[in-house]
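Incident log entry.

Two folding requests arrived from the same account within the same minute. Monitoring flagged them as a possible duplicate submission, but the sequences differ. Recording both here for audit purposes.

Request one:
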Amino acid sequence: MQRCLQLAEKGLGYAAPNPLVGCVIVYNSKIIGEGYHSFFGGAHAEVNAVNSVRDKSLLSKSTLYVTLEPCSHFGKTPPCTDLIIKHKIPEVIIGNKDPFKMVNGSGIQKLKKAGINVTVGVLEKKCRFMNRRFFMFHEKKRPYIILKWAQSKDGFIAPDDKSFVKTQRMAKKIHRVSNEYSHMLVHKWRSEEPAIMVGTNTAQKDDPQLTARNWQGKNPVRIVIDKDLKLNRSLNLFDKKAGTLVFTSKNGSSKNNPGFVKINFGHDVLKQIMHHLYRENIQSVIVEGGAILLQSFIEQKLWDEARVFSNESLINSGIAAPQIKGKILSQEKIDNDTLTIFKN
């Protein structure tokens, strides 16, 4: 099952909105086949694992391990349960039951009815963490929310506005608190999530591109809050390098990029945005700033994971970093940066 998890991770950034799934087939204590779900719409992990077995006659004497319950319905591909039954695989070991309403235990029951010995719950917590975006989306009906920022040793994420105006070139240099390796890692993260979000001030002052240009992979959909549609259309967010969604109180027009979504700014703005993303089948979002937006997510307890870079640099005065409390999942050094990952 540990090998299944290693395989499943290879689909991160490509399989969504489908789950990350890895599969191995074992005969006589040796792996004879393995596969993972490599991209949305492509063959599932079980199919790729079965297809990789050279001698198909061994399948009827083998055990199939898979991180998530095999599907039992026709989607973009046929049911994996039918393939397992067809090859008379006698035993299936599963990490998690699938929370998706079209499966949700029906795959397990179908296998059992066919006389297959099924075990569920092997490395269950690790398998669930691997698919934390998928489980959050189907169980809580909202995207998995990742907060991200970088802060100086003295607790600032950027210099103040006066410093920014007076020494704009220097301020922009200071504004990137994290180092080049951390910056590259952030671009890798962007390629792994379907959406990325910033507030109005960050969009206007920093003019971010919010793309994964320093890493191979897909660009996320860019999301910005622009209540009164005041953002300049010459900003990088409105180029054609990635899709953009603008949440506003006004009526906007669009030729697909950007897309305007009118919401009520007098009531639960963030929850309205998350509900819209859920309807659009967006399973996760990275929130990259600014401080007010990040703190709003924290205060409303509307976050799942926070990735915080800190280093030894000093800004002295400026925009204070968000204040967060949560369980520390991990902490590591990236050159002169320290990356701390929190769980809500």
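Request two (distinct sequence, not a duplicate):
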Amino acid sequence: MSGVRILLTGAAGFIGTATWKLLVAEGHDVVGVDLLLPEAHGRATREDPPVAVHVLDVRKAHHWSELLDGVDVVVHLAAMVGAGASATDLPLYAKHNDLGTAALLAAMHAHRVGRFVQASSMVVYGEGRYTCPEHGDRVPAPRTAAALDVGEFDTPCPVCGGPLDWGLVEESAPLDPRSSYAVSKVAQEGYASAWARQAPGAAVSLRYHNVYGPGMPRDTPYSGVAAMFRSSLERGEPPEVYEDGRQMRDFVHVSDVARANLAAALAVGGYAPGRHEAFNVCSGHPVSIAQVAGFVAEGSGSGVEPRLTARYRIGDVRHVVASPQRASEVLGFTARVRPEQGLADFASAPLRA
């Protein structure tokens, strides 16, 4: 399918910019919308966004809904990101993410736009999947401060007390949101599912894992652990790795996330009305946090080695690693950038001020 008209929200953001460039390069007609929130963009980007956008608020989509005329599919990336500093941030996430998605879907219905793709997140799962060699899949109890204080970082099997290993989380796993952001992402998936049935329309929610790459902004909620490690190295300081560094994650390059967005935008065009599906978007190559620090340090050429600190944060997830299988089979999406290369390159990649 070529020449699709796509309305892209959050078009000037980190992932939005990469997605915009790919969509245009592939010959699609893109209408960009972004509120240019200072929390996500900073002052410089607000004054000179990286792509041409209509500076509009998705919460007020009924005011600018004429932009939806002739649109084949909406790719919705606009959102407040980050975990939220405290429970007082709950209304902020609800206003931007919950209300913004609901208002956009309502405007789409009014203009008979029946295809929708949105950014979700791995945080909807809470903890990852854990298995005991003897007792199979198990749901662990929360890790206690007393255990973490003495370096017992692995989650114990609730039956035998032995250490649980990590497994790949599939899209059918129960959802367990544990932050303001996570709750809002679960809500966004719920709105998409309800809209698909009621409109009717077809929708896809993409559960991104740890996204990194060129254009990642500094010192914003987008700045994940890879960016923190890079900042330490640029100061001549060793990256500080929490716990024992064996926490497992999946780091997916922003260019691959853009490809997943495109794959979903094209695939949803063939869906029957009433259908909503969720997909993991990940590299398929799990890495430990210590490895992440090592890859970034190696790419920096600084000679500075990461440092294990045994420090911890109560509530941190021990492991969360996704299965890429369903996205590969249904969307035809497979990541191309392996973390060891992408994270090393990230050490010197241009970032957004």
